[in-house]
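Batch manifest, entry 17 of 40.
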Amino acid sequence: MRDERATLISTPSLPRVPHLHGVVLHGPAEPDDAEALADEHFRELPFRRLLAADDALVDALTARGWHHEPVLLLARDGALEPPGAGALAEQVPYGHVRGLRDEWIRSAPWATGEDRVSDARESDRRMFAAIPTRAFAVFEQGRPLAYALLLDGGRDGMLEDVYTTPGARGRGLATAAIAAVLHAARAERHELVFVPTDALEGAGPLYESLGFEPVATLHWLMKGQP
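Output type: structure tokens
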């Protein structure tokens, strides 16, 4: 749903997956109006989530108990030479990395039970059915240790789900998976490759070291728990 004030993101059949729900404000808003809009559209959910368009609203809602979850969006020229890597990543069917994805999901604070893990899996399935997606993974003794996805948006690509199992971190395996994605994006002649990451504790420094540049910060806020 979209009107002059905001665009609504909602997936009623998956109410426990936070990123499938949100009010995207189109411009500055008063705190009372923003909260009323979120209440109006998500009255059936135990949480409220919105994307603020101005710093004043972020400050005001944070003071009211909303949790600020800024997302840094970075981009890289798709024609650039991909970085070198000390390990080999190969393209694989998504099923080969589903175990790593489940491991990552279970580390999320909202994934408190198998029903929520199942919902997140279903969210992935729908996304991959709608957007051509390729998986690239680094293996050791037949076991995947790190992976990354390339979502094909047509002119541009999106690097998503960069993850390394905890016991294999610090060895450059994520860089190898990212490099494989960038090689594939270059072969597909994507103009840009985007990647989102947590703006506070995410992998921004890693992505910048690999040629990505910050282009925007998305100020998501959430109140309540899914």
